[in-house]
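Cross-posted from the bioinformatics board.
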Amino acid sequence: MPILISLAGICLIGLLVYGISTQSASRTLDTRVHEGRRPAAPEASRTLPVLDGDGVSSLRALRGKVVLLNFWASWCGPCATEAPMLQRAEPILRRYGGTVLGVTYKDATPDSEAFVRRFHITYPNLRDGTGDFAAGYGTDQLPESFLVDRDGHVVTLARGEIGQRFVNQAIELARST
Amino acid sequence: MRTGARPTIRGARSLAALLAALALGLLPGAAALAAARASLPQIERQVMCVTCKIPLNVAESPQADRERAYIQSLIDSGYSEARIKHALVGQYGSAVLGLPPDHGIGLAAYLVPLVAVLALAGLLAVLLPRWRRRSSEHGPGEPPAPLAPADAARLESDLARFD
């Protein structure tokens, strides 16, 4: 009997440790990118609702394009700083076969739509209300951006507000491939 | 006797009429009252701040503020508490209700208590008959063995001192 009780206790502790470890954001993607391995973009085939209309889309639907994937929310201050810069980059990226893809993170639709109107955003945006798509990227803070090449591999990433340098990197990748 | 019965029947009819009136008149009123009762503090206590992962009523963050504003806009639109929760799940997923997910590690929250209860029931099923058997073997209320004469005398003298 004491063996059984001990075994049950060990199982519960193991479950607790596993639960805590899976709750923290994964940084596997960062490690692989920094090693220069260009990992496949996670959750590429997961469909998400389109923000400004009906229907769904996915990252995979943009295969063949260079994608500057940007996670944002209306309640995020630095996202508001990034938005005009990303909007300026959009036509340039489009010219070279690329695009910005915005993904809203745990943001109410009316707020996201107001944000899009406020910054005159024309690039596509998808809704990740549950954060399941973002979890694949280890995203738990905003803003975060990922540069995805034409084959759907992550070239580089930025956790935090990006600058013109990151945008230029995206344009250069689109221009040169 | 008949005159005595009439008031009883009349009373029963009145009671039936009263119940019918309650059902027809007051119940929709009660439902409307419940719907009208949806308030921000009440809902805040029942939902989570989805980024801070703590109850919304104690959360202080820009996202929590937007979530409160969203709830308030739904309250202003006349939504009931249930509809507001439904809308919140539509926006943020079931995590907003603070319920563990029904897949992956979240399943443990549902399964562990169930397994614990079953294990406890199994344990009782095994141990209770054993305890019963053991207590019946000893026999109920056997008289204690008589004291030796020397011990009895000492006890008597001790008790006599307290008199």
